[in-house]
Automatic annotation (TrEMBL):
Stretches assigned to the Glucosamine inositolphosphorylceramide transferase 1 N-terminal domain: 2-88
Record-given protein name: Glucosamine inositolphosphorylceramide transferase 1 N-terminal domain-containing protein
Domain of life: Eukaryota
Organism of this sequence: Capsicum annuum
Keywords: Carbohydrate metabolism
Keyword Glycoprotein part of the UniProt annotation: no
Length: 99
């Protein structure tokens, strides 16, 4: 089955009910036969970056938008996802706060 590219857009990210201006910085995480892609999505209301997540159970042929995985009172981006002691963990390389 051919894969439609791009697999994630601000329109597909908005399908979960959170309006998005753009998506960026995807990070693929594979757990068994399930693919997850975590990505920055700019919230159209707060104008900050949140971390969204989508899942594929068919090796990336199609993606289900799961929604927002991480949200804070500041901008989040450049996510790194890894497993530690059997749990999915996150590392954020960039966090910005505007006062």
């Amino acid at each position: 089955m051919p894969v439609a590219n791009p697999v994630i857009t601000c329109v597909s990210a908005s399908a979960t009910g959170i309006s998005s201006n753009f998506v960026a910085d995807p990070f693929l995480y594979i757990q068994g036969d399930v693919f997850y892609v975590f990505f920055e999505t700019k919230n159209s209301v707060t104008m900050q970056g949140d971390i969204g997540v989508a899942r594929s159970t068919n090796k990336g042929a199609s993606w289900e938008q799961l929604g927002i995985a991480l949200v804070e009172d500041w901008h989040l981006s450049y996510l790194y996802v890894f497993e530690y002691n059997g749990n999915i963990s996150f590392r954020l390389c960039e966090q910005l706060s505007f006062m």
